[in-house]
Amino acid sequence: MDTIETLNTLFGADISVNGGQVTVSNAAALASPKMDRLVRVAVFGDADEKEHARWLIWELAQAVGVRAASIQDLYVARGRGETHGFTVPAINVRGAAYDTARSIFRVAMRLDAGAFLLEIARSETAYTDQRPAEYVAVMLAAALREGFRGPVFIQGDHFQVSVKKFAVDPTTEVEAVKSLANEAIAAGFYNIDIDTSTLVDLSKASLDEQQRLNYEVGIDILKTVRALEPKGVTVSVGGEIGEVGTENSTVEELRAYMEGFNRTLPAGMIGLSKISVQSGTSHGGVVLADGSIADVKLDLDTLERLSNVARDDYKLAGAVQHGASTLPDGAFNNFPKRETAEIHLATNFQNMLFDHMPADLRATIYEWLSANAKDERKATDSDEQFFYKTRKKALGPFKRRIWDLPDETKKTLAAKYDEKFTFLFNQLAIGKTASIVAKFVRAPAIHRLDPTEAAAVAAAPDDADLSD
Asked: Which residues pair with 239 in a beta bridge?
């Protein structure tokens, strides 16, 4: 068991923790196995240990310039035409989060890349058992462990309104998304994709009416996001016009949404930085009976048109492509050529994890799924289809087992992840973007009270004097 004092003295004379102040005298000590121990406590310690370890990771990161940041100003610059030619990957880090993120930062350093996002969706926070405070701590710890320096863009992906829950009780469902935004921003998520595209109603006669709930509810949530921003931070917010896996988006739909959104946006309030569209992909891909993935009919012309309209007419960074990780390797270099602003990558990294984990662990997970996810199985599903579609639901229950994979497995996975991220970063042309990020993005230091002091402040009467 790690006491608070043990955590504070973990790095010896290289790090000083005194009176809630963290001083780093030897930054190289952060890139050592001691960080592995600290982040493990941040994930698996008891309540007090977790809270203190997460605070310590945050403050260590602040001290050496590894800061949670908003990509807003880079995207605004792209909307003005001041930078272009690359596509920002937004990577959903689901399983083996620390090791996966270490690979991302390791490759980013090799390629001098700075324009990339680490993200987790509303649904993923539940089934992977990674709430925002934990996710931020793990991502920052991974950056510190690899010696990365610079802004770290952490994103809330698909902060989505459930159409079924909205139909029953719209207020409660929207408040749930606002509550998640509150939790996420407080943790260090300074990039959020508001997804109210589920509320698009194609039965309405006009495009504006079809998109009305999408932009009105989106702005309702945006108001909450703007009210929660820390000093010096403008959260980068994305909207969405087409739910992933449905009909391809059109220029007319984009215009209807953006005109309605901008018309409804309160005067003086900063709006969107990008817009997600549908152009032929689906989350996770379409799995066939033998477990292989069906070919994707990606409409690059549509994607390019939508990106151009988003930039030229609305000064956004451009269009965002979801569900891209299972595309064939030959597809990825098209995204920067078509000036796609951002693509989202998730399932393929999860597939790599399951493909390379020990066979006995995979068998145990599949046995658990057979018992605990059986209601999700369709009568027509083969075993391969069922396990492929549901195995993400085991990432939370088996988080500790996956975290503690054998060293040899971790070594193999690290090599595979490094190879894949190197390929993707090169194809998306984000090498050498660290200097572009540095040109446009300023990540202010945001210090936090240590948990003990924060608890005292919270418990004190409003008129109490807590000064020394």
From this structure: 275
Residue 71 Cα distances to 88, 99, 219, 246, 312, angstroms: 10, 24, 20, 28, 20
Instruction: Give the Cα separation of 162 and 50 in Å (integer).
Output: 31
Which domains, from first to last, does the chain contain? 4-65 (no CATH), 68-357+405-440 (3.20.20.70)
Residue 281 — very low, low, confident or very high, per pLDDT cuts 50/70/90?
low
DSSP states of 162-200 as a string? PHHHHHH-HHHHHHHHHHHHHHHHHHT--EEEEE-GGG-
- For 287-316, write each residue's pLDDT tens digit: 446 655 555 568 889 899 999 999 999 999
How far is the CA of 82 from the CAs of 29, 75, 76, 311, 333, in angstroms?
38, 10, 9, 12, 21
Query: Global pTM?
Result: 0.94
Q: Output the CA–CA distances (angstroms, integers) from residue 161 to 126, 246, 464, in the order listed.
A: 15, 16, 41
> Could you give the CA distance from residue 275 to residue 254 in angstroms, rounded to a whole number?
9
Sign of CA dihedral 392, 282, 189, 341: positive
- Strand partners for 24: 15
pLDDT, position 152: 98
Q: Output the CA torsion sign for 395, 118, 106, 14.
A: negative
Query: Residue 278: its pLDDT value, please?
Result: 85
Contact indicator for 50, 138 with CB cutoff of 8 Å:
no
- Determine the Cα–Cα distance for residues 41 and 131; give it in Å rounded to an integer: 15
Q: Which of 216, 116, 133 is nearest to 180 (CA)?
A: 133
- Give the range among 76-85, 183-192, 244-253 with minimum mean pLDDT: 244-253
**Strand, helix or coil for residue 359:** helix
344 strand-pairing partners: 90
- The pLDDT tens digits of the residues spanning 92-148 come to 999 999 999 999 999 999 999 999 999 999 999 999 999 999 999 999 999 999 999
